[in-house]
Structure formats: structure tokens, C-alpha cells
């Protein structure tokens, strides 16, 4: 019974973490007016915007975090409103496999966004790509916060998968031990 | 008979994943191209980009792990541990592949809003070899997802097929 409570607590934290990451990155936008060139003495200003949609990795980040938080919400709702759902093997194994797939998904999204953010922060002098974080500091800060929340979600999803797999192992051990005396009695 | 085919299938999958991960590492390490325009000559190497270095390291770890698990004896108690390690290795593979594809996409198409120009026009052979390495990484990932479900099936007996 304690295992179920631990699982519920972990799922609530993972839901909050991934939802926060998706929302912070989804609302990430900064507009700045910069001086682009100077003709004579009059500077030419251009208004540049940094949005998360400009980078495909960040779009994938938002979508993947929304999917994982939806999965966690579904599992929380199932666990609260149907506590005595028959513990069949199919339920346990589908929950375990779904947890593992979503853990991989959120780790892929967090990592892709982390490497793109590192590229934006440091630039790359071999490919002649300039860094953008010195001009759009608030955009970079918000992106960094979303990344931290997503990595917390990754660690939590890994723990949730481990607990789900252990539930599956314990259930299979219990039913293997329970079925052997009954089949022996049937033979006798 | 069922046990033998199960064990053989697991071994074949793991050996294929080992080959795919090793292929990805080798393809990415040997990608190097020198291109010159006018008097400048620039060398494109995989180590210029951090995401490719992470891809090489992650796939190297995965291939070493696969090689070691190939020799695990059948009745060892470590098989339950292998399930959790398989999950961690799958997460490592997806994260490395996803990061490398994200950065390679910027190299191929550029990012007009950030003022980043694509580099694939100047070093086409380098780009093709990186693409090959990423495809090998994707094959290793798919094989590992199958292996994960397979490991769970070997350790747990979900449909109680075994009669004691």
C-alpha cells in the first residue's frame, strides 16, 4: 500500500514539473529594438523578436512535455478514482511500458532543447554561428528555467518507471508462488 | 524449446544493437572534411559540435554495455538488474540521438531568425557521413526498445505461461 502512495506522490510531482516546463517554454517570447547599422549619423533600428517557434527543438520540447504531463494526469486520475481496479497483469504491464516510453520521450525532448540552448548561449566559431543570449537575456533565462523543470521531470519519470517495474515483478512473483500449490492440488 | 528460442532471440537482438551502436560511433568519428574557398580553408570535424561529441560518447557506452551483457550466463541473478539498466540505456540513446538530430538540422537548414547559415553546402561529404551515423543510431534505438520489452518478458511471466 505504501508503494501506491509513493507512486502517486511521484506522479503528482512529475505532472507539475513537466507542465511547468511546457508552459514556461510555450510563453517564451522577447522583442527588442536593436541598432542594426549606422548611415552617417542616423542609426537604423530594427525590431527583432525571439520566439520559441523559431527553433524546431523547442517546439518538440513543448509538445513532448505536454504529452508526458497528460500521461501523468491520466495515471493520477485512474489511481484516485478507481482504487480497487482489478490488479490484472495486463493493467500492470501496460502501465509499466507506457511509463518507460514516456520517460524516454521526455529525456529526448529535454536533451535536444539543452543542446540547442547551449548553441544559443555559446555560439559556435567553427560554423560561424553567433550567440544570441547576450542580446536576448530574458528569453535565455526563461528557457533555462523551463529546462531545469524538464530535467527534474526526467529524473522523476525514471523513478516512476522503476517503481512500476518493481510492482510488476512483485505481482508476478506472488502469482507464480500462488499458482504452484493450486496446480499441484489439481493434479492430486 | 520455448526457453531456447527466447534466449537465442534475445542474443540476436542484442548483438544487432551492439553492431548498430558501434557503427554509429565509427561513422561519426571518421567524418572529417577539409573545404577551401578562396584562401580560407576550414576543416569540419565531429568534435566541433558538442552534441556530436555527446552522441559518440553515449553510443560508445551503449556498445560496451551490449557487449558485456552478451556474455551474461543464463541463470545469473543479474537479469533483473538488466531490465533497469536497459531502460537507462534506452533513455541515453534517445537523448543523444535527439540532440544530434536537432543540431544537425540547424547545420543543414540554418536558422534564418538567428542569422545562422547552413554549413552543409560547403562540406557535403561530412554532412552525408553524419546522416549515416544518425541513421545507425536510430536503428540501435529501435532495437533497444524491442530489447526492453523482451527483457521484461523474460524476467516477468505476464501470462503465466510457465507451469511449475
TrEMBL record, chain A:
<feature type="transmembrane region" description="Helical">
    <location>
        <begin position="57"/>
        <end position="78"/>
    </location>
</feature>
<dbReference type="Pfam" id="PF04535">
    <property type="entry name" value="CASP_dom"/>
</dbReference>
<keyword id="KW-0472">Membrane</keyword>
<feature type="transmembrane region" description="Helical">
    <location>
        <begin position="146"/>
        <end position="170"/>
    </location>
</feature>
<feature type="domain" description="Casparian strip membrane protein">
    <location>
        <begin position="4"/>
        <end position="156"/>
    </location>
</feature>
<dbReference type="InterPro" id="IPR006702">
    <property type="entry name" value="CASP_dom"/>
</dbReference>
<dbReference type="InterPro" id="IPR044173">
    <property type="entry name" value="CASPL"/>
</dbReference>
<keyword id="KW-1133">Transmembrane helix</keyword>
<dbReference type="InterPro" id="IPR006459">
    <property type="entry name" value="CASP/CASPL"/>
</dbReference>
<keyword id="KW-0812">Transmembrane</keyword>
<comment type="subunit">
    <text>Homodimer and heterodimers.</text>
</comment>
<comment type="similarity">
    <text>Belongs to the Casparian strip membrane proteins (CASP) family.</text>
</comment>
<dbReference type="GO" id="GO:0005886">
    <property type="term" value="C:plasma membrane"/>
</dbReference>
<protein>
    <recommendedName>
        <fullName>CASP-like protein</fullName>
    </recommendedName>
</protein>
<feature type="transmembrane region" description="Helical">
    <location>
        <begin position="90"/>
        <end position="116"/>
    </location>
</feature>
<keyword id="KW-1003">Cell membrane</keyword>
Automatic annotation (TrEMBL), chain B:
<dbReference type="InterPro" id="IPR006459">
    <property type="entry name" value="CASP/CASPL"/>
</dbReference>
<dbReference type="InterPro" id="IPR044173">
    <property type="entry name" value="CASPL"/>
</dbReference>
<feature type="domain" description="Casparian strip membrane protein">
    <location>
        <begin position="7"/>
        <end position="143"/>
    </location>
</feature>
<feature type="transmembrane region" description="Helical">
    <location>
        <begin position="12"/>
        <end position="31"/>
    </location>
</feature>
<dbReference type="InterPro" id="IPR006702">
    <property type="entry name" value="CASP_dom"/>
</dbReference>
<protein>
    <recommendedName>
        <fullName>CASP-like protein</fullName>
    </recommendedName>
</protein>
<feature type="transmembrane region" description="Helical">
    <location>
        <begin position="133"/>
        <end position="156"/>
    </location>
</feature>
<feature type="transmembrane region" description="Helical">
    <location>
        <begin position="51"/>
        <end position="72"/>
    </location>
</feature>
<keyword id="KW-0472">Membrane</keyword>
<comment type="similarity">
    <text>Belongs to the Casparian strip membrane proteins (CASP) family.</text>
</comment>
<keyword id="KW-1003">Cell membrane</keyword>
<dbReference type="Pfam" id="PF04535">
    <property type="entry name" value="CASP_dom"/>
</dbReference>
<comment type="subunit">
    <text>Homodimer and heterodimers.</text>
</comment>
<feature type="transmembrane region" description="Helical">
    <location>
        <begin position="84"/>
        <end position="107"/>
    </location>
</feature>
<keyword id="KW-0812">Transmembrane</keyword>
<keyword id="KW-1133">Transmembrane helix</keyword>
<dbReference type="GO" id="GO:0005886">
    <property type="term" value="C:plasma membrane"/>
</dbReference>
